[in-house]
């Protein structure tokens, strides 16, 4: 992680006083700038894909480390103190300098290279992606392809930061971000992962009410709150007991618990792994629970390979991903 040293402020916010050994990371600076821009902790937290309590904790730690109050808090909004305004000015410049340096470094690194960085969320075999990327590389063997797997929120930040060129996202996670463009690929419905000793294992598809009495275990998608909310609503409307669901930090943890017979784990059908040794998959017969997958890229990214990959993806048959 790239970190910047900062200088301590006096209470009046008149300027830097002395060099200190503490370090402030770029993400924390971006969090503070988001609060300054929105003057609202909740809205700022959503912009950087963290919870409001986490945002409050970050600001409190900054104030404690600097020894000054940066915000005036009221019931409905926050305002900058004089020290806060100075911090905002300095952080804005530091973040801009960092992003410019990163872009220049990436351009130097990519000089003379034909490169495309692709991101996606899910198991390695998601939507037969490995085969699709192999086919793309066979069509364009001169393009060097990097693949990144992460959460949708994490990948969104990587896209905005220029660290990846494209990624497969759930539509709701990126549709309100003005600097991101996307193309629709397919609608994915739901299944559950169950232990092979679970009686549901004998079925290919069940009605939602067949899951009554089953303990629901699923990933909390902590960095993709919009998608999590939509999934919860869909599962609840379909009749699943989400009030007593157990949420875990990682998708893999949910699958492990399902394998151990500790519950059933709702997943998109595209997350099913053919021939999985420990779990079976049973589709849920309901159209209330779905995810819309898109290919997303950042406006202004002049990498010509983005257009090639978009055209490639649009020609692919994604219907097999929904089964």
UniProtKB/TrEMBL annotation:
GO terms for molecular function: DNA binding; DNA-binding transcription factor activity. GO terms for cellular component: protein-DNA complex. Keywords: DNA-binding, Transcription, Transcription regulation. This is Transcriptional regulator, LysR family. Belongs to the LysR transcriptional regulatory family. The keyword Transcription regulation applies. The keyword Chloroplast does not apply. Residues 24-81 form the HTH lysR-type domain. It comes from Anoxynatronum buryatiense. Transmembrane segments: none annotated.
């Amino acid at each position: 992680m790239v970190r910047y040293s900062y200088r301590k402020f006096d209470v009046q916010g008149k300027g830097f006083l002395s060099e200190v050994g503490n370090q402030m990371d770029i993400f924390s600076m971006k969090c503070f700038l988001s609060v300054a821009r929105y003057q609202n902790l909740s809205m700022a937290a959503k912009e950087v894909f963290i919870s409001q309590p986490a945002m409050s904790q970050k600001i409190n730690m900054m104030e404690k480390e600097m020894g000054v109050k940066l915000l005036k808090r009221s019931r409905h909004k926050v305002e900058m103190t004089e020290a806060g305004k100075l911090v905002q000015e300095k952080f804005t410049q530091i973040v801009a300098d960092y992003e410019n340096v990163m872009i220049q470094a990436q351009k130097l690194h990519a000089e003379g290279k034909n490169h495309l960085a692709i991101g996606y969320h899910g198991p390695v075999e998601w939507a037969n992606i490995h085969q699709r990327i192999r086919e793309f590389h066979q069509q364009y063997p001169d393009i060097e392809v990097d693949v990144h797997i992460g959460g949708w929120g994490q990948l969104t930040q990587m896209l905005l930061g220029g660290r990846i060129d494209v990624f497969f996202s759930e539509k709701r996670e990126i549709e309100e971000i003005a600097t991101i463009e996307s193309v629709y690929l397919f609608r994915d419905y739901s299944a559950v992962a169950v232990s092979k000793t679970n009686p549901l294992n004998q079925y290919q598809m069940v009605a939602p009410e067949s899951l009554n009495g089953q303990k629901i275990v699923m990933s909390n998608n902590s960095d993709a709150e919009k998608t999590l909310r939509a999934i919860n609503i869909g599962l609840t409307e379909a009749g699943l007991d989400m009030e007593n669901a157990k949420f875990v930090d990682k998708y893999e943890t949910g699958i492990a618990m399902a394998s151990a017979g500790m519950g059933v784990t709702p997943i998109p059908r595209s997350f099913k792994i053919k021939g999985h040794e420990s779990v079976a998959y049973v589709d849920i017969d309901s159209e209330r629970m779905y995810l819309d997958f898109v290919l997303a890229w950042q406006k202004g990214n002049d990498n010509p390979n983005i257009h090639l990959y978009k055209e490639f993806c649009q020609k692919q048959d994604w219907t097999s991903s929904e089964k």
